Amino acid sequence: MKITSQTSVGKKMNKIRLITLSSLLFALILLNLFILNGLTFKQIAQAISSNYARATKSGIAPDNQLQLTDWNSLITSWNNLPADFVARTGGASSNMQGALDMGNNRITNLAGPGTSANDAANKGYVDTAVAGAGGGGDTFTNWGQSTCPAGSTALYSGFAFHESFNQSGGGEPTCLEFTTEPLTSGAPTTPILDTLSPLSTADSGQLPSGMPARKVVKCAVCYRDGGTCFEHWGGQNCGGAAGFTPIYTGFSLGGFGNRTSNINRHCVDNVNFDAAITSTSYEAVWYGTSIYSTTNVGLFTPNSYVKCSVCCN
């Protein structure tokens, strides 16, 4: 039987005490480091138990797990968890420090933007803003009536005017607003200046079928929100232009070929033509535009009136 001396027992007890104190001291040091680095036990537990994708620091390549080697330098090498995770509740410690790659995934339940120019906007807000902006717009003149087709807004309405056929001017007809506002502040001292007369349609034998003869041409200047408009010649469609539809159709009317004042041609609505006023002056006249020659072009028929449409998208 071996008898252990009291001195040996005392040495062992002292060694146990030393190990215990050393362990406690080491734990206190670690706890102090955790506190200094802003760590919590919950964060540490989450990082150890989860598939935590570390960023590379101090030459240590990320391997998605926390390793003991990360403790080589507690301050410079190991990830600081508050800086690597975004808190669910936000706050000052939740700022992103780099690009956020969503991996082709959606962000859902996003609130509308606040007042900051850097706020994100959800789809509903963007759709409403785009629809409100309308992407611009365009104006056109509806020749033949004093109202605007559906889908457009009347800016003003009136009557078509142009210089008389025996004057030396010419060019675009004018849609002159019908208003009670005085047009002039006095009379011209010279009789023949830049003069205007009501524009009317020609005789029945000089117009396409369905176009009223010897009638004053009414007009309206219209605005099409969020679209573009153009006059299409040669057909009462839009020539296959993608996204465009006829806003009104008709026939081309223009000036008489050998008259001194020649009026530019435009597409006049013959379907909804307002024929309420008969012309008695017959000074500025619009005639039907017809094909005179088809030399080298066999698709057109001589002596046929030109169809047209005003198209908008």
What topology does this entry show?
Elements: H1 6-36, H2 41-49, H3 81-84, H4 123-133, E1 137-143, E2 153-162, E3 170-171, E4 174-177, E5 197-201, E6 218-225, E7 229-233, E8 245-254, E9 262-263, E10 266-268, E11 284-288, E12 307-312
Parallel strand pairs: 3-9, 5-11
Antiparallel strand pairs: 1-6, 2-4, 2-5, 2-6, 7-12, 8-10, 8-11, 8-12
Word description of this protein:
With 313 residues, this protein is an alpha+beta fold. It has 2 domains: 78 residues, no CATH class; 161 residues, no CATH class. The protein is 18% helix and 21% strand. Strands 1, 2, 4, 5, 6, 7, 8, 10, 11 and 12 form a 10-stranded mixed β-sheet that branches. Strands 3-9 form a two-stranded parallel ribbon. The longest helix is centred in the N-terminal third of the chain and has 31 residues. About 4% of the residues have low confidence.
Précis, in short:
With 313 residues, the chain is of the alpha+beta class.
Order of helices and strands: HHHHEEEEEEEEEEEE
How far apart are the termini? 110 Å
Residue fraction in strands: 15-25%
Q: Pick out the low-confidence regions.
A: 70-80
Q: Taking Cα atoms only, what radius of gyration do you get, to the nearest Å?
A: 43 Å
Largest sheet: 10 strands, mixed
Tell me the quaternary state: single chain
User: How many DSSP-defined strands?
Assistant: 12
Helical stretch count? Answer: 4
State the secondary-structure class.
alpha+beta
